[in-house]
Amino acid sequence: xxxxxxxxxxxxLIGIGLYCRKHATDVDGFVLGGRNVGAWLTxxxxxxxxxxxxxxxxxxxxxGWKYGIAATWAGIGNxxxxxxxxxxILGRRTRIMTRHLNTATMPQxxxxxxxxxxxxxxxxxxxxxxxIPYTASLYNGLSRLFGMAFSIDYSVCILLMAVLTAxxxxxxxYMATAINDFIQGMVMLVGISAVIYAxxxxxxxxxxxxxxxxxxxxxxxxxPGIFASFFGTDPxxxxxxxxxxxxxxxxxxxxxxxxxAIKNEQAIxxxxxxxxxxxxxVAGGCYFLGGFGRLFSDQIDIKANGFxxxxxxxxxxxxxxxxxxxxxxxxxxxxSTLSSLVIxxxxxxxxxxxxxxxxxxxxxxxxxxxxxxxxxxxxxxxAVLALIQYKSSVNFIAQxxxxxxxxxxxxxxxxxxxxxxxxxxxxxxxxxxFIFASVLMTANMLIRPDFPQILQSPINSGAIxxxxxxxxxxxxxxxxxxxxxxxxxxxxxxxxxxxMVPLSTSLNSEK
Length: 511
Known about the structure:
Helices cover 74% and strands 0% of the residues. By secondary structure, the protein is mostly helical.
């Protein structure tokens, strides 16, 4: 049953990739689906790119163990801040301005918005440096699950996931990724709901499981029932988790790029609702499930096997059918995120570094061919890094997921968001934010013991990088040379363009 479901799942993914080849003949079609992607596909593409095996296996297990049922706040934050507010604040303005400036990547946006080719190169380098380790970390959550389900070597899992993702992304580009993300999203919705029900039933149901969690004791905490409490064991560090995993989507290139491709106003409105509900179920469900991890403490040795062993242990007693569903769930989460990351990485390197600096007259067909070639390169590099991490038991690659989020979102969130709303943002403010976040997160990786206790965690440092950017940009913009007025006025002119809309869209057009 497990093998049959996997074969069917893989066949559907490849078939969709081959079907979508007609949408991937030029750069705009390959990278953005022709900017004609509807609400459901965009919302699911956003959600499936957001949540991967890192969340389901790594973060849910780690934070559920540390904070108990209060870890669910991370999932709620992902839904309200990472989805609802992100779509509401960024979605519409991003779609309008990026189309007006004719930009397909975040570095291109910074170049045309500020008239600064150097900003584009700087943003592209940050993405290139911090995106690859993130892609490698996506494989980490699969090793224990595949070992549990099939007793096969992790190397086979990595190779399988890499090859299948490469086939459908290279064939169909963004549109194939979006359609597959929709299917993978449905698997994730059904899968996480079924898994939560099955795990809680194995402990006597929700009430009995919650009661059991309230009875769990730990020598580090004297408060009775703390793992079943509202704010858990450490509200401050839990807040940093919520900030990093929720606010981070506002500045991650692979997330923001979803808004470039959305079809129209109605699609944005529907997509906001769909994406938020998806996040409530998937993210909320993952962290909620992880919150019951300590009920299985008699089977888990955290010191020996780490937090990644928590969720697989919780699932190990399920039926073959449920385990097959879990494996496909985690594969879906990881492959959808991997496909989104490699498209962003390959298009950024092609359009923002190679084409504009080394091969300025490159034809459309050559650009698409180069993007496809670089997708293979990025997937291969990430697979090799994952194999190195697995074979040598090096842990730093897995830790770089938090560092990658902190660096990229810390660098881009504030400059990008303010640039959509304010004409006063300066080039110097963008550079300051880029450098601050990159240096902070690199230092956190290299000299972590020298940091203050609260900032030694990559998650806490990443959250600080994002919040600091929201202060840095307006302050630096106020004391540095103002941007070119003509350039800025042209960028913002797109918001003033008059259009005719039906009454079903806006009552303002009623005479």
